[in-house]
Amino acid sequence: MLHIPSTSGLRAFEAACRYLSFNQAAEELGVTPGAVSRQIQTLEQYLGKTLFHRHHKRIELTAVGRQYLAEISLPLEKIAAASARLRSETRRNAVSICAYPTFALRWLIPRWADLYEHHPDIDVQLITSLNPADFERDDFDISIQVLPDGTNLTGMRIDKLLEVVTYPVCSPELAKKYSRPEDLHDAVFVHESPRPTDWPRWLAEAGVSNINSSPGLHFESANMALHAAENGLGVAIGIDALVQESIAAGRLVKLFDVDRRSNHSFHIVSSSRKSTRPKLATVREWMLEAAGQPV
Hints:
The chain is α/β, with parallel strands linked by helices.
């Protein structure tokens, strides 16, 4: 017999980890913040461990919470992918997309309404994962991947979507402290696990060699790191395409006039065998147009 906690508690925990906010997790799940808090408390009671530190206006994962998230993320992703695959068998109009969580939340979803406005006949199924899609196992139609420019993969069509241009970002209030890169010597550096070299590489680009960026706050995802920066906890490295909306809304400020342009970009990857299917081609072309790329 399998002994597993409530799925509602796991969903609440995973959403709260992504946002570092019970309020935003509740908004995504369509419940109240109190319900999210109770579900996570029930999960903590089941496990006999504290998963979050509760502060006045923010929450923070405990070391146990970070370990638990790392261990359950892949199984949850597999459950989501398997469920999506079964559902897709009865939804012939669906186009399935596998994307990085931060890319989905900060670039794809904000543009989703435009896709449906122009193509209401196309159903899109979105699965998020930090790992590249396995087309043989998961049968996705499209995967968004960061790849070296000019990459060729056998049996795959690859279209460059967005360049990866990085620079420091922080809250408007915190930005008042920094006028030049050298001022970061006393900054709280915000790091994300999937991109551990962003800070050293940007500091090298800025010509700053006497600052140790290793200490600071470390998060499991870029979205969590950016939420921390938005809430004034420190300075994060943002990818331009994924922080433009937050900058325009005044939640983040770009620091300095130094950009680091990577030779690894966001690409649309699809099976050559499927790539000419009309609905898949339509979604791919819509994404390229939204990114300002030639179709």
